[in-house]
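Sample intake — Peptidase U32 collagenase domain-containing protein
Collected from: marine sediment metagenome
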Amino acid sequence: MRLSVGPAPSSWGAEKLGGLYRDLARSPADDVYLGETVCPDRSCFSDGWAGRIGEDLARAGKTVYASSLILVRDDKHRRAFRHLAQQVGRIEINSAAFLGLAREYPAIGGAFLNVYNSVAARILAEAMIERIVLPCELGLESIISITKQFDVATEVVVHGHIPIATSNMCPTARCFGWDDRNCREVCRQHPDGIVLEAGDRPMFRIEGLQTLSAATYCLVEYLGELEQAGVDTVRILPQRGQAARVVWVYRDVLDRRREPRDALEELKALSPTGLCNGWFLGKAGWVYESPN
């Protein structure tokens, strides 16, 4: 299976993002996604910067995609993404507003297009989408029903803080009493997000306009099941300071150089708010369970 790394948020800042992509250039990742998908007001990907990063990654043997916004508010955002697509040459579409670009560029259908069955997968394939990222909330049985009923390349998120909701109003700004029109980009002061607890455990993590899982979603023990299901690519959602290391861990397991149980122990050490995989197993999302 191919191994991809999803887009990192611009709240990390240009310096940290540059370091991430330099590390990924030396990693065994096959595909790398660039672009601000959450909030257009904080994007670092302008003035040719993304194009230069894309060229560096391509020279390192990576296939590079420009990722679109999830929520598109006006034509300015459409023009900005078209400019990014021209620099990078391949795209990931996270909003139906950009589906027309699939006829101009090699295109991946992002998870936010919400493909929950083979009928939706067929519709996207007819729109010239080459590969579909399945929603994180799909369990193994649902993934199998899509891959077996319709011959389409699929990608599944296997590691990272997974998105639960994306809002037009910024919960991060409102935590500090700011409104959306004067947010002061407070998310940049919290590049790892703000953890919210429910009861006695971390439950959610707000990052800009998004609400994410507080725990790290982890399917390192289920890569064999995904391969048997016909999944083509597995995706890691980057976390600051550890993305390249996580890529190496997953590559070693995929290539059978390392046992999943051993890899799990290292990934636990990298995840201070714990691991989860409940959705994949049809259980409560915060649960983590190993195979029997």
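Post-analysis note: The chain has nine helices and 14 strands.
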